[in-house]
Amino acid sequence: MRGAGPTTQAAVRRFVATGELHATEGSSIGAAMRALPFGWATPVAAAGHRRGLTGRLSRTTHGAPEAVISAGVVAELAAWAIEQHPVDAVVAAGLREAEAVASQQAVDPATLQPLRQAARGDWPSTTAGPTLDALATVGSVLQVLREAKGLAAALKRAVALGGDTDTTAAIVGGILGCQLQDVEGQIRWISRVGMADARLIEAAAAGLYELRRSSQ
What we know:
The chain has a single domain, classed as Orthogonal Bundle (ADP-ribosylglycohydrolase fold), CATH 1.10.4080.10. Helices cover 63% and strands 0% of the residues. The chain has helices at residues 6-18, 30-33, 36-40, 47-58, 65-82, 87-104, 113-119, 134-147, 151-160, 165-177, 183-186, 198-215.
């Protein structure tokens, strides 16, 4: 499995050994990293379906409630963003989803403090650091979105925060980028980025669109 991380490798070993589909631990950002398509593929109105889908797929590799919450937030952000809601409404929706999933997972409400801080613009840059903590990284995402002055500036801000910069920037890019018709117009250097074959990207986008239509 080229490029597979430790949680994915552990999930495969677990399945081969026991047939078990869900992890009992794992609190890193990996589940949230995969969650953007869950939001792109489900309309805002299909909240229950999206929450169930995100939770099931996240627990394949990440069993910790914090990881499942973070994935739910990212999926919710993506669902609201692709329907062209203003960024402040997107952030508010993400925070509401965090509260809902935390209640479902019976998590101490205080656990969500980083997300609440970020949503109200009180996420200090000194908080960022080399970390794979899911809630801390998603807090950085919310802070960058709240301050966003365009896609290019937001990506630079995500990287400048420090910490898990590639994940933060990728999630921010997916949320803000899905609202644009002309990403290349804002990201002049995108032609220098190593991308998958354009036909594969188009096929993935078409598949997500069909899933979204079938959920309406």
